[in-house]
Automatic annotation (TrEMBL), chains A, B:
<keyword id="KW-0238">DNA-binding</keyword>
<keyword id="KW-0443">Lipid metabolism</keyword>
<keyword id="KW-0805">Transcription regulation</keyword>
<dbReference type="InterPro" id="IPR029069">
    <property type="entry name" value="HotDog_dom_sf"/>
</dbReference>
<dbReference type="InterPro" id="IPR036388">
    <property type="entry name" value="WH-like_DNA-bd_sf"/>
</dbReference>
<keyword id="KW-0276">Fatty acid metabolism</keyword>
<protein>
    <recommendedName>
        <fullName>Fatty acid biosynthesis transcriptional regulator</fullName>
    </recommendedName>
</protein>
<keyword id="KW-0444">Lipid biosynthesis</keyword>
<dbReference type="GO" id="GO:0003677">
    <property type="term" value="F:DNA binding"/>
</dbReference>
<keyword id="KW-0804">Transcription</keyword>
<keyword id="KW-0275">Fatty acid biosynthesis</keyword>
<keyword id="KW-0678">Repressor</keyword>
<dbReference type="InterPro" id="IPR017275">
    <property type="entry name" value="Transcription_factor_FapR"/>
</dbReference>
<dbReference type="GO" id="GO:0045717">
    <property type="term" value="P:negative regulation of fatty acid biosynthetic process"/>
</dbReference>
<dbReference type="GO" id="GO:0003700">
    <property type="term" value="F:DNA-binding transcription factor activity"/>
</dbReference>
<dbReference type="GO" id="GO:0045892">
    <property type="term" value="P:negative regulation of DNA-templated transcription"/>
</dbReference>
<dbReference type="GO" id="GO:0006633">
    <property type="term" value="P:fatty acid biosynthetic process"/>
</dbReference>
């Protein structure tokens, strides 16, 4: 066994370790971490039988969809990869060029809103849930090609309205934050209150 | 001239008058107003040379697009039919089945957000404008097939941030309200302030 094989084996062991802790790193991010080429990471993944990121996300997402109550699987904007109904969830969505402004390549805000809103509705433990209010902050502009990782958490519930906080990150950096007030279906609406809701 | 012709002429005169004041009424709404069939309204429109609502909207929208500075024409979600840069604007968007939940036919909230956000950005008098914050209320659920009429108004400007209020109505009833804080491009960002923005 030569030095090259040694370093490859060490790198592959670290790769398995890192992807165990951060499963949503792209090949580009892994290449930067190991100071090797993207092609090297791809060969390592193949040798280890680890599918590419898109496939890893789809595999995780498919296993979660049957747990969502409030939305049909094809109605979730983004891939839900973690879900504890009534508690929290995680979704991943890759923004492509079609989601960005042509002049600037900046991803359009309503897609970040859509991902966060879908996830917030999905983690509500009810057969139908409608958004009544939302407060959102766009912290940083996001370029097409980025993977958006949204994390939603139920913050409380009162009179049938569930408050859900969502934080969306790209490369560990917060790009979007939202606070949703979501109504479980079947709650009587009183005039002038949080409203009937939508989505 | 007989009575039938008399009433038709009177109705057609009122039709022109009503559409002058409320140009975005559908044939169904006009039929209900006149207590006649939708077919009768269509024949009246044809006799008067008034195109159908979709055409009326497109005609108005095309004439407005060159005035928008901050977005390319195909980037506006909805049709902008009125625009006073830096002051106010009106956009119309018809929600189809593809924009609604399959189970309930309720239009998804992020489309109402997209229409309002597009319009809010479009009325800003700048070459590029990014949304920093938004507060939105969903007042009533909207069914697929509805025409959403959004009206945006600039409420103030401070340190390069423009505040825009948007109200969206269906059949004169408020279904959605939003308050956007939009950053003109080129404004220096100070850490922890309203952020870099998106859209």
């Amino acid at each position: 066994m030569n030095l090259a094989q040694d370093s490859r084996r060490a790198r592959q062991e670290r790769l398995v370790d890192i992807l165990g802790r951060e499963p949503f790193l792209t090949d580009e991010q892994l290449a930067a971490k190991f100071s090797v080429s993207v092609q090297t990471i791809r060969l390592d993944r193949m040798a280890l039988g680890i599918p590419e990121l898109r496939e890893r996300i789809k595999d995780l997402a498919v296993s979660r969809y049957h747990e969502v109550r409030s939305l049909a699987p094809d109605e979730v904007f983004g891939d839900i990869v973690e879900l504890e109904l009534g508690v929290q969830g995680l979704s991943i969505w890759r923004a492509d060029r079609e989601h960005a402004f042509s002049r600037s390549s900046i991803v359009r805000g309503h897609y970040l809103f859509a991902q966060a809103n879908s996830l917030a509705v999905a983690i509500v433990d009810a057969d139908q849930a409608l958004t009544a209010r939302a407060t959102v902050k766009f912290m940083r502009s996001v370029n097409a090609g980025s993977y958006m990782i949204a994390h939603a958490r139920v913050k409380g519930e009162r009179h049938g309205y569930v408050r859900v906080g969502v934080q969306t990150k790209v490369h560990h950096e917060s790009v979007f934050e939202a606070d949703f007030l979501i109504m479980r279906k079947g709650i009587e609406i009183t005039g002038g209150s949080a409203g009937e809701g939508c989505d």
